[in-house]
Amino acid sequence: MDTSSPRYALCVFCGFSTGNSPRYQQVATELGQLLADRRHQLVYGAGGVGLMGAVARGAADRGGEILGVIPHFLRSREAGHHLPPQTVVLTDDLLDRKRIMIERADAFIALPGGYGTLDEVLEVVSMTALGLDVGPLVLVDVANDWATLRDLVRDLLGRGFARRHDLFHVVGSAEEALDAVESLLAPAVAVNSVG
Ligand SMILES: C/C(=C\CNc1ncnc2c1ncn2[C@@H]1O[C@H](COP(=O)(O)O)[C@@H](O)[C@H]1O)CO
After folding, report:
1. What is the pLDDT of residues 3-42, one digit of tens each?
2. Residue at 93 is within a domain
3. In this structure, is residue 136 part of a structural domain?
């Protein structure tokens, strides 16, 4: 087995703030560490602050491979003082950043965040709803963070403005998130396969 190349490129969306509880940073760090331990590449928004920084430092501490994608205008604002080593792709704007992160990823994991995170999550949700196979999306609940999104989906379904309810998965820990994406990405094994 080739152990040098990453297994999957996993894009993590999350806030450039830390949130109101230390638990958010703990989970973000753990996600970065586990992602690297399991030999996945981290694709993310190239930030060194907030949860973005915590995920990246977690991955870097364990020798993980990191691809950061960020527009020129955000680079100094979101780099902070503890940006770990990574390959950086500079983009002209936020739309290009989002497109490149989505193109480069096999699957998506979202931690809690603000408007930017919500925008990225909804981009993947709406692309999947349109039948574009961008990869599975797993949301990590740290403190019931995704309840309002689930309520919104229920509301859209109830009012006849959405048809699919299976556009993302919600889990309760970093480990469950990685278990979920790995099983969703694993090639199906044919029941009658030999060897
Ligand atoms: C696509 C455009 C506006 C929509 N807003 C955003 N789109 C993509 N990324 C964004 C947007 N606003 C902030 N961001 C970045 O997301 C990261 C996480 O931010 P959060 O708000 O803490 O969740 C961070 O890098 C933000 O800069 C305009 O064309």
Report:
1. 556 699 999 999 999 999 999 999 999 999 999 999 999 9
2. yes
3. yes
Q: What is the pLDDT of residues 33-69, one digit of tens each?
A: 999 999 999 999 999 999 999 999 999 999 999 999 9
Query: Ligand 1, closest atom to CA 95?
Result: 1
* Count of structural domains within the chain: 1
83 CB-near residues (< 8 Å, 6+ apart): 46, 47, 48, 53, 56
CATH of the domain at 168: 3.40.50.450
CA-nearest residue, atom 5 of ligand 1:
116
**Alpha-carbon torsion (177, 20, 23, 31), positive or negative:** positive
Owning domain of residue 114 = 9-182
Q: Is 194 contained in some domain? A: no
ipTM: 0.91
Atom of ligand 1 nearest to the CA of 50: 22
In a domain, 94, yes or no: yes
| Tokens 């100094």 -> residue | 76
Ligand 1 atom at minimal distance to the Cα of residue 17: 22
SS3 78: helix
User: Is the model's pLDDT at 76 over the cut of 50?
Assistant: yes
Please tell me the residue having the least CA distance from ligand 1 atom 10.
Answer: 116
The answer to whether the predicted template modeling score (pTM) of the entire model surpasses 0.80 is: yes
